[in-house]
Amino acid sequence: MNVLEFLQQINQYYPLSDETAGALLEICTEEIYRKNEHLLEAGNMARYYYFIKSGLVGYYTVDEAGDSIYKIFFEENSFVASTAAIIKNEPSEFSIIALEDCTVIQYPVKAYRELLEKHPDLALFHIHYLEKNWVVKKEPLEVSLKYETAKQRYVFLLENRSLYNRLKQNQIASYLGITPTQLSRIRKELS
Fold it and tell me: How does pLDDT run across 25-46, given as a tens digit for each residue?
Protein backbone atom coordinates (compact mmCIF):
# COMPACT_ATOMS: atom_id res chain seq x y z
CA MET A 1 0.00 0.00 0.00
CA ASN A 2 1.55 3.27 -1.13
CA VAL A 3 0.58 5.69 1.62
CA LEU A 4 2.71 8.67 0.62
CA GLU A 5 -0.22 10.81 -0.65
CA PHE A 6 -2.26 9.88 2.44
CA LEU A 7 0.43 11.05 4.85
CA GLN A 8 1.21 14.13 2.73
CA GLN A 9 -2.46 15.19 2.91
CA ILE A 10 -2.54 14.67 6.68
CA ASN A 11 0.68 16.61 7.15
CA GLN A 12 -0.79 19.59 5.26
CA TYR A 13 -3.20 20.00 8.17
CA TYR A 14 -0.83 19.07 10.99
CA PRO A 15 2.47 17.13 10.85
CA LEU A 16 2.45 13.68 12.45
CA SER A 17 5.40 12.19 14.28
CA ASP A 18 6.86 8.98 12.86
CA GLU A 19 5.41 7.11 15.83
CA THR A 20 1.90 8.48 15.22
CA ALA A 21 2.11 7.88 11.47
CA GLY A 22 3.18 4.29 12.13
CA ALA A 23 0.32 3.70 14.58
CA LEU A 24 -2.18 5.15 12.09
CA LEU A 25 -0.87 3.07 9.20
CA GLU A 26 -1.24 -0.09 11.29
CA ILE A 27 -5.02 0.32 11.30
CA CYS A 28 -5.28 1.23 7.58
CA THR A 29 -6.16 -1.07 4.72
CA GLU A 30 -6.34 -0.35 1.02
CA GLU A 31 -9.66 -1.30 -0.56
CA ILE A 32 -11.16 -1.12 -4.03
CA TYR A 33 -14.77 -0.10 -4.58
CA ARG A 34 -16.25 -0.57 -8.02
CA LYS A 35 -18.46 2.02 -9.71
CA ASN A 36 -21.92 2.15 -8.05
CA GLU A 37 -20.71 0.18 -5.01
CA HIS A 38 -21.52 1.73 -1.65
CA LEU A 39 -18.80 2.57 0.84
CA LEU A 40 -21.63 3.29 3.28
CA GLU A 41 -25.41 2.95 2.94
CA ALA A 42 -27.84 5.23 4.75
CA GLY A 43 -29.31 3.51 7.80
CA ASN A 44 -26.03 1.75 8.64
CA MET A 45 -23.50 2.70 11.25
CA ALA A 46 -20.44 4.50 9.87
CA ARG A 47 -17.64 2.06 10.64
CA TYR A 48 -14.81 3.61 8.61
CA TYR A 49 -13.10 6.81 7.60
CA TYR A 50 -11.88 6.85 3.99
CA PHE A 51 -9.12 8.56 2.04
CA ILE A 52 -9.70 8.58 -1.73
CA LYS A 53 -6.49 7.58 -3.53
CA SER A 54 -8.18 7.38 -6.94
CA GLY A 55 -11.70 7.75 -8.21
CA LEU A 56 -14.73 9.83 -7.34
CA VAL A 57 -17.37 9.33 -4.66
CA GLY A 58 -20.71 11.00 -4.00
CA TYR A 59 -22.32 11.74 -0.65
CA TYR A 60 -26.11 11.63 -1.00
CA THR A 61 -29.51 11.04 0.55
CA VAL A 62 -32.74 9.87 -1.04
CA ASP A 63 -35.87 12.04 -1.11
CA GLU A 64 -39.51 10.92 -0.70
CA ALA A 65 -39.77 10.25 -4.45
CA GLY A 66 -36.77 7.91 -4.30
CA ASP A 67 -34.43 10.30 -6.11
CA SER A 68 -30.79 10.67 -5.05
CA ILE A 69 -29.96 14.13 -3.74
CA TYR A 70 -26.19 14.72 -3.82
CA LYS A 71 -24.76 16.89 -1.06
CA ILE A 72 -21.10 16.84 -2.13
CA PHE A 73 -18.57 14.99 -4.28
CA PHE A 74 -15.09 13.89 -3.25
CA GLU A 75 -12.17 13.51 -5.66
CA GLU A 76 -8.69 12.11 -5.18
CA ASN A 77 -6.78 13.10 -2.03
CA SER A 78 -9.99 13.72 -0.08
CA PHE A 79 -10.99 12.41 3.32
CA VAL A 80 -14.55 11.07 3.46
CA ALA A 81 -16.80 9.86 6.26
CA SER A 82 -20.30 10.25 7.59
CA THR A 83 -18.91 12.59 10.23
CA ALA A 84 -22.21 13.49 11.90
CA ALA A 85 -23.16 9.82 12.23
CA ILE A 86 -19.77 9.05 13.76
CA ILE A 87 -19.97 11.92 16.24
CA LYS A 88 -23.55 11.07 17.25
CA ASN A 89 -22.87 7.29 17.14
CA GLU A 90 -26.06 6.85 15.13
CA PRO A 91 -26.85 5.28 11.75
CA SER A 92 -25.90 7.49 8.83
CA GLU A 93 -28.56 9.58 7.14
CA PHE A 94 -26.38 9.69 4.02
CA SER A 95 -24.93 7.12 1.66
CA ILE A 96 -21.44 7.26 0.18
CA ILE A 97 -21.18 5.70 -3.29
CA ALA A 98 -18.35 5.15 -5.76
CA LEU A 99 -19.21 7.13 -8.90
CA GLU A 100 -16.12 5.65 -10.57
CA ASP A 101 -13.94 2.70 -9.64
CA CYS A 102 -12.12 3.85 -6.50
CA THR A 103 -9.08 2.89 -4.51
CA VAL A 104 -9.31 4.04 -0.92
CA ILE A 105 -7.39 3.79 2.30
CA GLN A 106 -9.90 2.98 4.99
CA TYR A 107 -9.44 2.94 8.72
CA PRO A 108 -11.92 1.82 11.39
CA VAL A 109 -13.70 4.51 13.38
CA LYS A 110 -13.23 2.79 16.75
CA ALA A 111 -9.47 2.22 16.35
CA TYR A 112 -8.95 5.71 14.92
CA ARG A 113 -10.86 7.35 17.80
CA GLU A 114 -8.63 5.43 20.25
CA LEU A 115 -5.55 6.76 18.44
CA LEU A 116 -6.91 10.32 18.71
CA GLU A 117 -6.83 9.96 22.50
CA LYS A 118 -3.28 8.56 22.56
CA HIS A 119 -1.61 10.84 19.99
CA PRO A 120 -2.06 14.62 20.42
CA ASP A 121 -0.60 15.31 16.96
CA LEU A 122 -3.26 13.10 15.34
CA ALA A 123 -5.94 14.86 17.39
CA LEU A 124 -4.60 18.22 16.17
CA PHE A 125 -4.72 16.99 12.55
CA HIS A 126 -8.32 15.92 13.12
CA ILE A 127 -9.31 19.29 14.63
CA HIS A 128 -7.59 21.28 11.86
CA TYR A 129 -9.21 19.09 9.19
CA LEU A 130 -12.70 19.50 10.68
CA GLU A 131 -12.25 23.25 11.08
CA LYS A 132 -11.12 23.76 7.51
CA ASN A 133 -13.50 21.36 5.77
CA TRP A 134 -16.61 21.27 7.93
CA VAL A 135 -16.66 24.88 9.11
CA VAL A 136 -14.65 27.20 6.85
CA LYS A 137 -15.32 25.37 3.57
CA LYS A 138 -18.91 24.39 4.36
CA GLU A 139 -20.15 27.85 5.34
CA PRO A 140 -19.90 29.37 1.82
CA LEU A 141 -21.73 26.32 0.43
CA GLU A 142 -24.60 26.83 2.85
CA VAL A 143 -24.76 30.54 2.01
CA SER A 144 -24.63 29.66 -1.70
CA LEU A 145 -27.60 27.31 -1.36
CA LYS A 146 -29.63 29.95 0.43
CA TYR A 147 -28.81 33.08 -1.58
CA GLU A 148 -27.49 32.10 -5.01
CA THR A 149 -29.56 30.94 -7.94
CA ALA A 150 -29.11 27.51 -9.46
CA LYS A 151 -27.52 29.25 -12.43
CA GLN A 152 -24.90 30.94 -10.20
CA ARG A 153 -24.16 27.62 -8.45
CA TYR A 154 -23.88 25.89 -11.84
CA VAL A 155 -21.36 28.46 -13.08
CA PHE A 156 -19.33 27.93 -9.90
CA LEU A 157 -19.38 24.14 -10.41
CA LEU A 158 -18.46 24.62 -14.07
CA GLU A 159 -15.28 26.42 -12.94
CA ASN A 160 -14.10 23.14 -11.42
CA ARG A 161 -13.79 21.45 -14.84
CA SER A 162 -12.01 18.36 -13.52
CA LEU A 163 -14.98 17.55 -11.27
CA TYR A 164 -17.67 18.79 -13.67
CA ASN A 165 -16.45 16.56 -16.51
CA ARG A 166 -16.64 13.47 -14.27
CA LEU A 167 -20.30 13.95 -13.31
CA LYS A 168 -23.46 12.89 -15.11
CA GLN A 169 -26.01 15.60 -15.83
CA ASN A 170 -28.55 14.07 -13.41
CA GLN A 171 -25.92 14.17 -10.64
CA ILE A 172 -25.22 17.83 -11.37
CA ALA A 173 -28.94 18.66 -11.35
CA SER A 174 -29.38 16.80 -8.06
CA TYR A 175 -26.43 18.60 -6.50
CA LEU A 176 -27.85 21.97 -7.61
CA GLY A 177 -31.30 21.08 -6.30
CA ILE A 178 -32.99 21.36 -9.70
CA THR A 179 -34.49 19.02 -12.28
CA PRO A 180 -32.54 17.81 -15.33
CA THR A 181 -34.89 19.94 -17.47
CA GLN A 182 -34.02 23.07 -15.50
CA LEU A 183 -30.33 22.21 -15.85
CA SER A 184 -30.79 21.87 -19.59
CA ARG A 185 -32.33 25.36 -19.73
CA ILE A 186 -29.46 26.85 -17.74
CA ARG A 187 -26.90 25.18 -20.00
CA LYS A 188 -28.75 26.52 -23.08
CA GLU A 189 -28.81 30.07 -21.65
CA LEU A 190 -25.06 29.96 -21.02
CA SER A 191 -24.04 28.58 -24.40
Answer: 999 999 999 999 999 999 999 9
